[in-house]
Amino acid sequence: QVQLVQSGAEMRRPGSSVRVSCKTSGGDFNNFAFTWLRQAPGQGLEWMGTLIPVFGTPNYAQRFQDRVTITADKGTTTVYMELSGLRTADTAVYFCARSLGKAAQADYWGQGTLVTVSS
Amino acid sequence: DKQMTQSPSALSAFIGDRVTITCRASQSVYGWVAWYQQKPGQAPKLLIYKASTLQTGVPSRFSGSGSGTEFTLTISSLQPDDCATYYCQQYNGIPWTFGQGTKVEI
């Protein structure tokens, strides 16, 4: 049974950083790509970046290029997303999702992690 | 980036109605389109991929069609459980881009 379980809600001050984890189970970790997306309150879905752990080099959305880092720990089959320089506009639910590659549909999703940025 | 324009943004229908949602890509994405259903407080759920392939376990009242730049999600007979927001997505390379969503109410 495939599961992606994300870490819990976070509250941060503007200018700080946050790291969200996504623990995966079921299926061969090395066969998949992992993507982070976010959804601001009442808004749609926004792609942030994708990592294929076996290749190691992530692709990031241009608007997050300087602030986001996606990494993976193959030993624990956990994927991480760190976002720095937080702004109030970064308040959103962050999702991890699994796909067979960068050009494939996301078939399994984490439950989402609310990150609130407020002074 | 390939933009996905989804319409309508919201609709209201009756149980048993046939519902159609349309997504238009700013350039051809061939058949690399997925449709997701999202309920409040939940993650999106994959319904359709490769424009018309039904994900395992998804009811057969959902269907998808299209290619190139025009895509459609159809619910053949709307059920109470179908109250949700629906998103199209293109994955013809990165970045993935999504439509703005269609909120379906009954």
Q: Report the portion of residues of chain B in β strands.
A: over 45%
Q: How many β-strands of chain A, per DSSP?
A: 11
N-to-C CA distance of chain B: 34 Å
Which residues of chain A form runs of ≥5 with pLDDT under 50?
none
Count of distinct strands of chain B: 11
**Largest β sheet strand count, sense and barrel closure of chain B:** 7 strands, mixed
On the 0-100 scale, what is the average pLDDT of chain A? 94
State the helicity of chain B in percent bands.
under 10%
Q: How is the secondary structure organized here?
A:
The complex is a heterodimer of chains A (119) and B (106).
Chain A: E1 3-6, E2 10-12, E3 18-25, E4 33-39, E5 46-51, E6 59-60, E7 68-73, E8 78-83, E9 92-99, E10 106-109, E11 113-117
Parallel strand pairs in A: 2-11
Antiparallel strand pairs in A: 1-3, 3-8, 4-5, 4-9, 5-6, 7-8, 9-10, 9-11
Chain B: E1 4-7, E2 10-12, E3 19-25, E4 33-38, E5 45-49, E6 53-54, E7 62-67, E8 70-75, E9 84-90, E10 97-98, E11 102-105
Parallel strand pairs in B: 2-11
Antiparallel strand pairs in B: 1-3, 3-8, 4-5, 4-9, 5-6, 7-8, 9-10, 9-11
